[in-house]
Amino acid sequence: MIESKDLDFTGRRVLVTGAAGGIGSAIAAAFSAHGGELILADFDGEAIEEQSGEFGSGTVFHQYDQGDAASIAALAAAAGPVDVLCNNAGMIEAGPFLEQSPEIIQRIIAINLTGPVLMARHIGEGMVARGRGVIVNTASQLAFHGSATRAVYAAAKAGLVQFTKSAASEWAPFGVRVVALAPGRTLTPMTVPFLNTEEQRQEGLKHIPAGRYGSREEMAKLALFLASDAASYVVGETLIADGGYVLL
Ligand SMILES: NC(=O)c1ccc[n+]([C@@H]2O[C@H](COP(=O)([O-])OP(=O)(O)OC[C@H]3O[C@@H](n4cnc5c(N)ncnc54)[C@H](O)[C@@H]3O)[C@@H](O)[C@H]2O)c1
């Protein structure tokens, strides 16, 4: 039986990256509702500030660039001790692989793989030293089946899944859990360009047995669950939430 204390984050400091985005803002709201003390970070400094009225007065906001190692180190230093890291910021740049410039390729990998790894490196160090903490990486269903026009993004997210397993193996003995969430197609600003028309939406649904797209709140609940004591024996796993897409 899941008890309410299992989902209670009172007194725990929760760092959410990509917190101005669709899934990130829902994750922030979910942890706030369960007592977490929020540290919210995003590239979009204005959007993150706009959320300031939505959460408790203790909420802290940071602008940073997940594609920049120095910026990540500065965020980690400013954040202080963190109990839960929702390593959620990400971006997609879709298009035929041969049309993607070396600069775009490096940026996709920097933001979706190198950045989260560096963030885990900085934040995880304190967790290991304190003997407790949880890192929830946001991967993607594309880590498991790939997709034309998303080769580099899929590769980066697949790397994040394997990083999750390996870091989890290293840090579980120190009381730190590393897990991942792999959303399927979820209605957020990221997917708007791909699901803009009714035709695009209907075409996309053909691949989802559940017959609908996921919601940001559904992803947030799973991130909360994975970070919670209800999932205390889940180590290194990636939870796929895609309405059955990978089953097809
Ligand atoms: N929406 C989906 O269908 C879907 C599916 C699978 C995985 N994901 C993953 O879920 C996560 C959240 O995506 P979302 O759908 O909420 O997208 P979103 O675009 O709504 O939010 C992403 C957030 O990340 C921030 N971000 C982008 N680049 C950044 C950078 N360089 N530094 C710091 N922050 C940066 C953006 O400003 C934005 O607020 C991402 O990691 C994404 O890859 C989304």
Question: Please, could you describe this protein's structure?
Answer:
With 248 residues, the protein is α/β, with parallel strands linked by helices. The chain has a single domain (4-242), classed as Rossmann fold. 42% of the residues lie in helices and 15% in strands. It has 8 helices and 7 strands; from the N terminus they run E-H-E-H-E-H-E-H-E-H-H-E-H-H-E. It has a 7-stranded parallel sheet, sandwiched between helices. Helix 1 (22-33) packs across helix 8. It is globular and about 50 Å long. The two termini are 32 Å apart. 42% of the residues are buried. The model has no long low-confidence stretch (mean pLDDT 96). It binds nicotinamide-adenine-dinucleotide (NAD). Nicotinamide-adenine-dinucleotide binds next to helix 1. Nicotinamide-adenine-dinucleotide (NAD) binds next to helix 1.
Topology:
Elements: E1 13-17, H1 22-33, E2 37-42, H2 45-50, E3 60-63, H3 69-79, E4 84-87, H4 102-130, E5 133-138, H5 142-145, H6 151-171, E6 176-183, H7 198-205, H8 216-227, E7 238-241
Parallel strand pairs: 1-2, 1-4, 2-3, 4-5, 5-6, 6-7
Helix pairs in contact: 1-8, 3-4, 4-6
